[in-house]
Design goal:
single chain, mainly alpha, Growth Hormone, Chain: A, 16 helices
C-alpha cells in the first residue's frame, strides 16, 4: 500500500463527511420536514422536483466547464470545494429554518422553491470539483480504487451520522428530549430540524477546510476553451459510455434513494415509531462501512466489472429479505436491519465502483474525442444523483397524492389511510430491488470499458499526455 497516497486519501476523504451531512439532510429528511413540519403539499413537491432538475440539467454542465477552466494558485478543484461548501452551508440553514413565514402562505411555497433550487446549485459547486479530483490524484486502477474507497467510507460515515442521529437529535434540539419525532408539536419539530441543520452546516465548512489543506492536485489538465452549452452537450452526447453509465447508475441510485427517502415515512406511519429508524439506519451504516472493503478485497481475484455485478446482486438480495421481514414478520426492526446490512454492503461497493467508472469514462472520452473533459464528465455524477432523487420523488409524491397522504403539522396524531400505508410499504420493499435488477441488466449488456479495451484506452491516453 502507498502510505503517502493513503494518508492524502484520508485527508481527501474527510471532505466527503461534510458534503454528505448536507446531502443526507436534503435527500433523507427534507421531504418529511416539508410535509410533516411545514405542511407543504405533496402535489407541490411532485411538481417542484422535476422542475428543479430541468434547471440542474443546464446548471451542472456549466459548472463542470467552469471548473475545467479554473487556473488558480490553489489548484483547479480546491478553490471550488471551499466556495461550494460555504454557500451550500448557508442555503442548508435557510432551507431548514423558517424565517417566520406562515406555513399555509403562498410565500412559504415560494421560499421553499427558491432554496430547494439553490441547494442543488450550491451542492454542485462543491460536489463536482470534489469528485473530479480523483483522476488528478492518481492514474492507476488500484490507486484510484484506494482513493475512491476511502472517500466513499467517509461519505458513508457522513450519511450514517445524519441517518442515525437525526431522529434522536431533532427532539432534543426541539426542546422535548423524551419525545418521538412523530409526537413532536410542529414548532418543536421545526426548531429541532433548524438547529440540527446549523450544526451540519458548520461541520460541512470545517471538513472542507481539512480536505483542501490535506490534498495535492497532480496531473492537472486545464481546458482553455470558452464555455459553450452546445459544445458541452455535444461532448456528453458523443461519449456513449457516459450516457450508458448515466442510465444504469440513475436507476440503481434511485432504488437506494427510495429507501432513504421513504424509510422515515415507513417507521412513522406504518410502524408508528420513527425512532426505530435510528436502529435500522445504524445497521445500514454498519453494512456501508463494511461495504467499502468489498472492492479492495474482491479486486484481488475479481475485476471491477464482476465486483459491480456482485454489488447490485447483494443490494437486490438484501431488499428481498427486507420484503420477507416487512410483509411476513410485521416489520421486525432487527430483521429489517440485518437484511439492510446486506443491502448496504451492495450499495456501498456499488458507489465506490461508480466513482472509479467515472474516472475511466474521463479517459475513454479523451481516447475517443481527443479532449479531456474531466470536470464536465464528473458533473454528470451530481446530475445523475439529482435525477435519481427526482425519480424517487416522482414515485413517492405520486403515491402520496393518489393515496391521499395528507399531514396537518398542527395536529399531533394524523390518521394515515391504509392505502397510503400499503403504498409506503411497497416503495420500501418492492420498488428498490426491481430497480437494482433493471440496472444490472443494462450494465451487463451495454457497458464496455473493461478488460483489454480498458487497458488499450489507458495506454493511449498515457501516450497522449507524454
Amino acid at each position: 500500500m502507498n502510505k503517502k497516497l493513503f494518508k492524502e486519501g484520508v485527508g481527501y476523504g474527510v471532505g466527503a463527511i461534510g458534503l454528505d451531512l448536507s446531502y443526507g439532510m436534503f435527500y433523507s429528511y427534507l421531504s418529511i420536514y416539508l410535509t410533516d413540519a411545514l405542511g407543504i403539499s405533496p402535489l407541490f413537491l411532485l411538481i417542484l422536483a422535476p422542475l428543479a432538475r430541468l434547471w440542474d440539467g443546464i446548471n451542472d454542465p456549466i459548472m463542470g466547464s467552469l471548473v475545467d477552466r479554473c487556473n488558480s494558485k490553489m489548484g483547479k478543484y480546491r478553490p471550488w470545494i471551499l466556495r461550494g461548501a460555504l454557500l451550500n452551508s448557508v442555503v442548508l440553514c435557510l432551507l431548514f429554518n423558517n424565517p417566520g413565514i406562515k406555513s399555509d402562505s403562498i410565500w412559504m411555497y415560494i421560499y421553499v422553491a427558491v432554496f430547494y433550487v439553490l441547494w442543488g446549485m450550491t451542492n454542485t459547486l462543491a460536489d463536482i470539483p470534489y469528485w473530479s479530483m480523483i483522476p488528478s490524484m492518481a492514474s492507476g486502477e488500484k490507486d484510484r480504487n484506494l482513493i475512491s474507497t476511502i472517500a466513499r467510507a467517509f461519505s458513508g460515515l457522513g450519511q450514517g451520522v445524519i441517518s442515525i442521529l437525526t431522529p434522536i437529535m431533532v427532539p432534543i434540539l426541539g426542546g422535548l428530549a423524551a419525545a418521538n419525532l412523530d409526537e413532536l408539536p410542529a414548532e418543536a419539530l421545526r426548531s429541532g430540524f433548524g438547529k440540527w441543520s446549523i450544526l451540519a452546516a458548520t461541520l460541512l465548512i470545517f471538513f472542507a477546510l481539512i480536505c483542501v489543506s490535506a490534498t495535492k492536485e497532480r496531473n492537472i489538465i486545464r481546458s482553455e476553451e470558452k464555455f459553450s452549452f452546445k459544445n458541452a452537450l455535444s461532448v456528453i452526447k458523443q461519449n456513449d459510455q457516459l450516457l450508458i453509465f448515466m442510465l444504469f447508475a440513475m436507476i440503481s441510485n434511485a432504488g437506494f434513494y427510495m429507501t432513504s427517502g421513504i424509510s422515515g415515512y415507513y417507521f412513522k406511519a406504518v410502524l408508528g415509531d420513527l425512532t426505530l429508524q435510528s436502529k435500522f439506519n445504524l445497521m445500514g451504516t454498519v453494512g456501508s462501512v463494511l461495504g467499502i472493503l468489498v472492492v479492495p478485497i474482491c479486486s484481488k481475484f475479481m475485476n471491477n466489472r464482476s465486483i459491480y455485478k456482485l454489488s447490485l446482486l447483494m443490494a437486490a438480495m438484501g431488499y428481498m429479505g427486507m420484503a420477507i421481514v416487512g410483509y411476513g414478520f410485521g416489520g421486525n426492526v432487527t430483521g429489517l436491519g440485518l437484511c439492510y446490512i446486506v443491502t448496504s454492503l451492495g450499495t456501498a461497493s456499488m458507489f465506490v465502483n461508480q466513482t472509479v467508472m467515472l474516472a475511466d469514462i474521463v479517459d475513454y472520452g479523451e481516447f475517443k474525442l481527443g479532449k479531456r473533459n474531466q470536470s464536465l464528465t464528473f458533473s454528470m455524477k451530481g446530475f445523475l444523483q439529482k435525477m435519481a432523487y427526482t425519480i424517487q420523488s416522482i414515485i413517492m409524491y405520486t403515491a402520496f397524492v393518489i393515496t391521499k397522504y395528507d399531514v396537518n403539522p398542527e395536529v399531533v396524531q394524523n390518521v394515515i389511510t391504509n392505502e397510503a400505508k400499503g403504498a409506503i410499504s411497497a416503495m420500501m420493499f418492492i420498488v428498490p430491488p426491481a430497480m437494482m435488477l433493471i440496472s444490472l441488466v443494462i450494465f451487463s449488456k451495454k457497458y464496455k470499458i473493461h478488460g483489454e479495451f480498458k487497458q488499450k484506452v489507458l495506454e493511449e491516453v498515457s501516450e497522449m499526455h507524454k
